[in-house]
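FIELD: query
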Amino acid sequence: MRPVVAEVALEYREIFNFVKLDVNTQLLKTFQYRIRRTPTFIVFRDGEIVGRFTGAMSKSELVERILGILEIEDTE
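FIELD: result
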């Protein structure tokens, strides 16, 4: 997933950002965000969680899910 996330992060940097949480060292945040498996994607808008999903996926599926949660049309 790392290469896919890196590619999406670069291509969509003007629309959204990725932040990585190390679940092995950030146990409090892992518990706070109820992360049970990896990868877990949590989508925030204005500091509030607006969606979440887990699991490996293709680049197109990752983009589709994020843009869908944010209610943004893909202009690519």
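FIELD: remark
The helical segments are 2-11, 27-32, 59-70.
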